[in-house]
């Protein structure tokens, strides 16, 4: 009896230690830091280091299982992604400011965008980054088939709706280009063809 007690105590401590072990996930931390920079609107040493520390803290407090990812981070393409995000953020903010002083009534609507990247990581990142831009927010994401439903502040005509789809596809490509492999990017380019564009404005429906 006395010999078994230390063994059980050792197993208990080992189990607790195993549960506390959190895998280091640099890609997730980097994406959280990127979102932080977009929200802050400033890029300097303090905001970059603060974003990385905040991302690490979030992953430490709310650990997630590792994401199966075959690509790698491409610094130059990541810079392109950040640059486009900052530009879209500025342009959309100006548009909303104009709407605030305009007498024209906006026509909000929901746009269904089929996504073509096969990894959950790219789908989630595309939805998150699309929601960061003022005037657009993701209201639903489907995995099979991969669909992203976006609520857009103003959809006056079909051309604006198609522009939203094209912009989201371009965002998805920049995400895959920044974090994916060459094969994933080639597969995405092959899938993003004009014939895959949906028609009409849709609302989310229940899964089949």
From TrEMBL:
<keyword id="KW-0472">Membrane</keyword>
<keyword id="KW-0812">Transmembrane</keyword>
<feature type="compositionally biased region" description="Basic and acidic residues">
    <location>
        <begin position="1"/>
        <end position="15"/>
    </location>
</feature>
<keyword id="KW-1003">Cell membrane</keyword>
<feature type="region of interest" description="Disordered">
    <location>
        <begin position="1"/>
        <end position="20"/>
    </location>
</feature>
<comment type="similarity">
    <text>Belongs to the CPA3 antiporters (TC 2.A.63) subunit E family.</text>
</comment>
<protein>
    <submittedName>
        <fullName>Na+/H+ antiporter subunit E</fullName>
    </submittedName>
</protein>
<dbReference type="GO" id="GO:0005886">
    <property type="term" value="C:plasma membrane"/>
</dbReference>
<feature type="transmembrane region" description="Helical">
    <location>
        <begin position="29"/>
        <end position="58"/>
    </location>
</feature>
<dbReference type="InterPro" id="IPR002758">
    <property type="entry name" value="Cation_antiport_E"/>
</dbReference>
<dbReference type="GO" id="GO:0008324">
    <property type="term" value="F:monoatomic cation transmembrane transporter activity"/>
</dbReference>
<keyword id="KW-1133">Transmembrane helix</keyword>
<dbReference type="Pfam" id="PF01899">
    <property type="entry name" value="MNHE"/>
</dbReference>
């Amino acid at each position: 009896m006395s010999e078994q007690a230390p063994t059980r105590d050792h197993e208990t401590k080992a189990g607790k230690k195993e549960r506390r072990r959190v895998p280091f996930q640099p890609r997730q931390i980097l994406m959280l830091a990127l979102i932080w920079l977009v929200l802050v609107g400033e890029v300097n040493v303090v905001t970059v280091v603060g974003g990385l520390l905040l991302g690490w803290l979030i992953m430490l407090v709310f650990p997630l299982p590792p994401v199966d990812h075959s690509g790698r981070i491409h610094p130059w393409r990541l810079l392109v992604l950040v640059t486009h995000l900052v530009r879209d953020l500025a342009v959309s903010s100006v548009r909303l400011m104009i709407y605030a002083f305009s007498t024209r009534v906006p026509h909000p609507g929901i746009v269904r965008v089929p996504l073509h990247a096969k990894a959950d990581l790219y789908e989630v990142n595309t939805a998150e980054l699309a929601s960061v831009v003022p005037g657009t927010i993701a209201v639903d994401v489907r995995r099979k088939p991969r669909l992203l439903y976006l609520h857009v502040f103003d959809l006056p005509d079909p051309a604006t709706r198609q522009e939203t789809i094209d912009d989201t596809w371009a965002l998805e490509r920049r995400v895959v280009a920044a974090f994916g492999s060459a094969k994933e990017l080639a597969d995405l380019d092959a899938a993003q063809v004009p014939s895959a564009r949906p028609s009409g404005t849709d609302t989310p429906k229940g899964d089949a």
